[in-house]
User: Fold Alpha/beta hydrolase-fold protein from Algoriphagus namhaensis.
Amino acid sequence: MKKIYAICVLITLIWSCAPNSEQAIEINLDPALAEGLKDGRVLLIFSKDGEREPRFSISDNVQTAQVFGMDIDDYKAGNPVYFDTESFGYPIESMANLEEGDYTVQAFVIKYETFNRADGHTVKLAMDQGEGRKWANTPGNIYSTPQKISFKQGQKIELNIDQIIPPISEKEDSKYIKHVKIKSELLSEFWGRDMYLGAHVLLPEGFEENPNDHYPLMVFHGHYPDDFGGFRTSPPDPSLGEDDYSARFGIYGYAKMQQQEAYDFYQDWISPDFKRFIAIEIQHANPFYDDSYAVNSENLGPYGDAITYELIPHIEKEFRGIGEGWARFLYGGSTGGWEALAVQVKYPDEYNGCFAACPDPIDFRAFTTVNLYEDKNAYYQEGEFRKTLRPGHRDYLGHVDAMLKDMNHRELAIGGDKTKSGEQFDIWQAVYSPVGDDGYPKPIWDKYSGKIDPEVANFWRENYDLRYIMERDWETLGPKLEGKVHIYCGDMDNYYLNNAVYLTEEFLEQTQNPYYAGEVAYGDRAEHCWNGDPTLPNYITRLRYNTMYLDEIEDRLRESAPNNFNQQNWTLTKN
Assistant:
């Protein structure tokens, strides 16, 4: 593997990287802010964005800021950090190639904790602090006030770490929304420290007035939620005008539109003819990402078992869920789409149907634009005389604005080569890979060059390739999945996720004994994350996950619920 990091050397008993002879970048840390810092990663960010802080300006698109990253180990309080100017960067790899000119510069320190895991490995990772494992917002991380400089090669730069991200306040309960946090015994044992799972719980109308009623459970999977989303008991804020612009959807007034949808959902929720059920959004951020992908993993631990056998039974007991597999359903989009299908496949008896929208790759022959089993390199299509970069992100017309290589090099600069960036490709690697000899996830491909490791790819296939697992085990899985699998994806998904859905559909449509009896549907020219309604734009349907699949769920309940289940309002009375 190409060595891309200069090695910092301990000189005497004071930690520091020896300053580059041509250019010294000195970062001074306020001792009070650096309290408890021992290990971490320092990011040096150059930006020309005049509106956002540099820490919020790093992205996959062409307007990204420039970031360089280096690890710090065994930091001694009170000492400066001399940033190694040979550290790897994104999008420009070497600081020597950074164009001279005016920049806003910021230094940022990601603090690591030491975990002594039950598997015998000791690892240093950033821990979620209630923000969803987002390094730029993690309470306790420290950074410098953005500083404007006129950069010249060889100049001396001095930055002062004088800011700290404050703690996050816990959400308060309301009549309809409750907040749950439990210590997971399974995860605490694995990580060698107390680990917690949380959930935001939306209770049905009449919950307090009908103490003998028990309800089905709808599990809305997705990224880390700071509260239950899309539910609002008051009309939209009248101060919101039509000048609010959504760059993602290209429309004005989207903030007000979102609030109106949330209020409309509340009006439906309390109406006398609306179905009664419990809906939850789960908090399972971890040292690698904003959620765990809701399955067991060698690197993350038994999150699948912890969620299914610890958290969900706890919620059902506290809030009168029915507590049986026929009364649990799964849905979500993107990461949540993969989770919905994966949990249904991994725990087929514990759930009665999944609705997977725009799922992360569910067939690794189309891992975005890579075939992990046949391609030799993730970043390049290679021929005898030339090679071409693989695309990573496109719009609905097919215009490409990011390559897989660039997307991975961004993670490499932010987190280094030990799967620590907290970003998309790193979490896939953390969830799906075996543990390496060093205790960190074994790379699916070399993060710098893109060379694929076929042994790791085979491990991924046997354990997390959902199409492969269903096909391999259909004789036993098929009867348990019949009628439960529903998949939706835009045919111009920005991350090419529709390609894996096509391959999965090919398998599902040829299933026998039994036929899968579910649904796969595509949105014409629809981008990420189309979730199944061809009559409305995605910027509306993405706000309706909690109501979109109720007709299909009703059909499923009519087929599988016991006779004492009230099909009119979806309640089961227990005296």
Remarks:
- The longest helix spans residues 254-270.
- The chain is about 25% helix and 25% strand.
- Residues 1-21 have pLDDT under 50 and may be disordered.
- The first strand starts at residue 25 and ends at 29.
